[in-house]
């Protein structure tokens, strides 16, 4: 009995070990990535699902183009057949041929029991307006598919920039709150020491501890927000959530202000979405030409080369003649009336072109509006950032002076609490101003097509 128990325990341990090994093999090992903003963009290019699907659409267009090219190339088909006439077909011949009564027929069987044929046929379009338009549109179609990739990447790139630099700024926010916690800990310690020496009240100690607890809670909430930001950035990049992501780029106020006074002139063609619509318009033109040329005749060449064998016995590949049939044909197809289908398709294509023109005009207005608003927001954000930086420095100075007065016994805990609250407000406003300035700069560069 003891041996059986030992064997059972051993088997359970082995099964547990193997189960852990299988799970370890199924789950990929988390990786650590230390990425600059450009490395994030490059990673998203290779792993973001939307970008990958857009690249697949490009490959689909490549295959579609091959199909268009096939319409202009010759079609060569080989075929072979073997027929076994179980009952040879019967034909009726007029009786008078054989001296019979007119109006009568004599049944006669023609042919052999076994018939075989091998043939090669050729079809070649010589002139087909729609095929020729399709050939001309191939390059534009590929540009269109690739531009769709770029537009998709651009939209993702904007969000990567915003999340990346918000997370970078959050480091500064964490540093500020850590400094506040250090100050609050020092104040709580000093207040307790004053109380222990009989020069302060317990309520002052409690207030200092409450302020410290509030700051520590604020840090926990902030860290949770930052962690969620990293999760969002990983998802945007197409990175496994279990991987570790470290941001290597930093940002300063000078970095944010760079480019503010640059020439504000911009070209519509710098925008990926504008380039995309221009390609759509070109494809609309090709579509119109396709329907216009569909009214022209279609000219094609056809040819057939056939070898036929007839045998009474099943010896097709034995001795015997193979009879040859071959021909070349020139075919022309002239459309006469299609129920006004061509006219309807042509008008629809022209209306689609008008619609695209309207979208282009609307996009121009949208770009002008976005650029103007982004420029104004960028300038305002920089002014606000400078103001909030000065205000934060002033709040730090006020807090320092208030704390010195409190330590000297010339101030109250209310004074230092108010100074600390003002400092936190000034710091929050400064961080918010940095966020706003970064977003405004990204939006401005994106609006004028300069976000690289």
Q: Briefly note the structural class of the backbone.
A: alpha+beta
Q: Count the strands?
A: 8
Unreliable segments (pLDDT under 50, ≥5 consecutive)? 1-11
State the end-to-end distance: 75 Å
Main sheet properties: 4 strands, antiparallel
CATH superfamily, by name, is Outer membrane efflux proteins (OEP)
The main sheet orders its strands as 2-5-7-8
Based on the coordinates given, report the CATH architecture.
Up-down Bundle
Strand content: 5-15%
CATH topology title: Outer membrane efflux proteins (OEP)
Subunit arrangement of the protein: single chain
Provide the residue-averaged pLDDT. Answer: 87
SSE sequence, one letter per element: HEHHEEEEHHEHHEEHH
The structural domain count equals 1
User: What general outline do the C-alpha atoms trace?
Assistant: elongated
Kindly state the percentage of residues in helix.
55-70%
* Helix count, DSSP H or I runs of 4 or more residues: 9
CATH top level label: Mainly Alpha
The gyration radius over C-alpha positions equals 41 Å
